[in-house]
DNA sequence: CGTGTTTGACCCGCGC
DNA sequence: GCGCGGGTCAAACACG
């Protein structure tokens, strides 16, 4: 296709370079939970799943009642998780995000070799039948996590480098959905970014997959950065933290030597005093309920931030 | 030149 | 089986 003058000035094309100028003055992360229940056909209902109508009226009111941030419906029933790769979608159980025993990580590692073999077989088969660029293999679903972020920018800086590989119009929404992929060659993490049609100030970011590498953006993040054992959970959970830190970096125009990828739910006291972080803590509260079964969590999350969701 | 974005085409899964 | 819509690909392009 002949590319004409690219006059696309979509507000979602904000790059990392311009992001710093558009840091939201108010950043309110509202909720996070498993999006694995999101069906292929139902992805359009993200807002519904997220209960954004309930969210919209007053995030702060809701923040006063963390329990209201929980998904309106209980987590989807877990199909028997055999070693089949298709089960990856249901692996986003409340696995320990900050421990190496994360189930999705180990399971995925175990599945990886099996799935690779299967994939190669299928690819070889289908290569002859289909265009090389297309794969006939069953699409595998990584664990997904969605954030609702009150922000003016769509693409939130989360410490990783992303390459946009697609943009689609969303049905019943004036805002497009953008597809990003981690630029690391070995990392297949993707994320989707879309704006709520109900409340344009709300950005829904959905992470899919696990980072297999530390954050490349953070200068000293390798030691405590998000590694394979935290994966997407880490990315997902660290994102608001990083944004918060980035936010304050922008505000204070100074470098913080500890600025790096934080492990999930590793609350850094240096930023915990900020008003924004209070919101982040609320966010993490919601996340805590999400991860309620994991021992290490109690070590880093104050008990009053934990929610029993039964 | 390397990296990231744009965008139309294509594939695939699902509902009817 | 067909159509719709979500998701992905990849060439062309933009930019530093």
TrEMBL record:
Taxonomic superkingdom: Eukaryota
UniProt region (Disordered), positions on chain: 66-146, 209-229
Keywords: DNA-binding, Nucleus, Transcription, Transcription regulation
Stretches with biased composition (Pro residues): 69-82
InterPro entries: TF_WRKY_IIc, WRKY_dom, WRKY_dom_sf, WRKY_plant
GO biological process, one term: regulation of DNA-templated transcription
Localization annotation: Nucleus
One Pfam match: WRKY
One cellular component term from this protein's GO annotations in UniProt: nucleus
PROSITE patterns for this protein: WRKY
Molecular-function GO terms, alphabetical: DNA-binding transcription factor activity; transcription cis-regulatory region binding
Composition bias type Basic residues, residue spans: 128-138
Keyword Transcription regulation included in the entry's annotation: yes
Positions of the WRKY domain: 151-216
Family: Belongs to the WRKY group II-c family.
Protein name: WRKY transcription factor
Annotated source species: Nelumbo nucifera (Sacred lotus)
């Amino acid at each position: 296709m002949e590319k004409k003058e690219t006059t696309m000035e979509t507000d979602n094309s904000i790059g990392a370079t311009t992001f710093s100028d558009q840091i939201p003055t108010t950043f309110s992360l509202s909720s996070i939970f498993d999006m694995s229940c999101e069906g292929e056909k139902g992805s359009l209902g993200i807002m519904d799943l997220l209960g954004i109508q309930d969210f919209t009226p007053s995030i702060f009111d809701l923040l006063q009642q963390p329990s209201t941030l929980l998904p309106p419906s209980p987590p989807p029933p877990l199909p028997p998780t055999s070693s089949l790769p298709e089960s990856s979608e249901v692996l986003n159980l409340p696995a320990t995000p900050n421990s190496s025993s994360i189930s999705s990580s180990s399971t995925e590692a175990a599945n990886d070799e099996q799935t690779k073999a299967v994939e190669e077989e299928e690819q070889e088969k289908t290569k002859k039948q289909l265009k090389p660029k297309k794969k006939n293999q069953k699409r595998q679903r990584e664990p997904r996590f969605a954030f609702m972020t009150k922000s003016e920018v769509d693409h939130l800086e989360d410490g990783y480098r992303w390459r946009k590989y697609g943009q689609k119009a969303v049905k019943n929404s004036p805002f497009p959905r953008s597809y990003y992929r981690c630029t690391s060659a070995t990392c297949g993490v993707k994320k989707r970014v879309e704006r709520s049609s109900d409340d344009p100030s709300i950005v829904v970011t959905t992470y899919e997959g696990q980072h297999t590498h530390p954050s490349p953006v953070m200068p000293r993040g390798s030691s405590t950065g998000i590694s394979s054992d935290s994966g997407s959970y880490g990315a997902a959970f660290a994102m608001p933290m990083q944004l918060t830190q980035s936010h304050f970096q922008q505000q204070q125009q100074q470098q913080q030597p500890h600025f790096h990828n934080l492990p999930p739910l590793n609350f850094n006291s240096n930023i915990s005093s900020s008003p924004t972080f209070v919101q982040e803590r609320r966010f993490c509260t919601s996340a805590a309920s999400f991860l309620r079964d994991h021992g290490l969590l109690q070590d880093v999350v104050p008990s009053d931030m934990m929610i029993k969701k039964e």
